[in-house]
């Protein structure tokens, strides 16, 4: 692995940063209607990047694990996005009832779409992690 003089592994660091950025963007979207999305973006970006760089031994395992985390948030994002719309709707008015129905339909439609995307992202993460666990053709065995 390529390390600079301080011991920083560039490939793993860049991978962890990009995955932290992607997960942070999904978390920020999920909390758009609840509030605090910019702060949660920064916390998620820093937390996921640190976790993937510190706890994973290669860029490939950081990518695979980052895809798992991203899949979980893709699955949760539509629910987190639409719950405040449903909960804040005044159902005594036509507009409020329409907002509640629209929020429920949003959870169903986008929740299903999120499920499909999350399954694909998790499957890619599985194959990336599985490939990281198999020995490469260039490795030597004693």
Radius of gyration: 19 Å
> How much helical structure, as a percent, in the residues?
over 70%
What portion of the residues fall into strands of 2 or more residues? under 5%
- Total strand segments: 0
- Poorly predicted runs are none
Number of helices: 4
Distance between the termini: 21 Å
| Element-by-element helix/strand order | HHHH
Q: Outline, from the CA principal axes? A: elongated
Class inferred from helices and paired strands:
mainly alpha
Largest sheet: none
Structure description:
The longest helix has 40 residues, at 94-133. The chain starts with 9 loop residues before the first helix and ends in a 9-residue tail after the last helix. The protein has four helices and no strands. The chain has helices at 10-30, 37-55, 59-87, 94-133. By secondary structure, the chain is an all-alpha fold.
């Amino acid at each position: 692995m390529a390390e600079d003089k301080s011991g920083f592994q560039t490939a793993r660091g860049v991978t962890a940063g990009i995955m932290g950025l992607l997960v942070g963007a999904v978390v920020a979207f999920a909390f758009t209607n609840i509030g605090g999305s910019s702060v949660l973006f920064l916390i998620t970006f820093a937390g996921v990047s640190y976790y993937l760089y510190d706890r994973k031994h290669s860029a490939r395992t950081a990518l695979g694990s980052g895809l798992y985390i991203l899949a979980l948030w893709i699955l949760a994002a539509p629910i987190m996005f639409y719950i405040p719309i449903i909960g804040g709707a005044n159902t005594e008015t036509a507009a409020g009832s329409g907002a509640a129905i629209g929020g429920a339909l949003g959870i169903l439609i986008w929740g299903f779409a999120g499920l499909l995307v999350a399954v694909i992202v998790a499957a890619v993460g599985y194959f990336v992690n599985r490939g990281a666990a198999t020995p490469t053709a260039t490795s030597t065995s004693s």
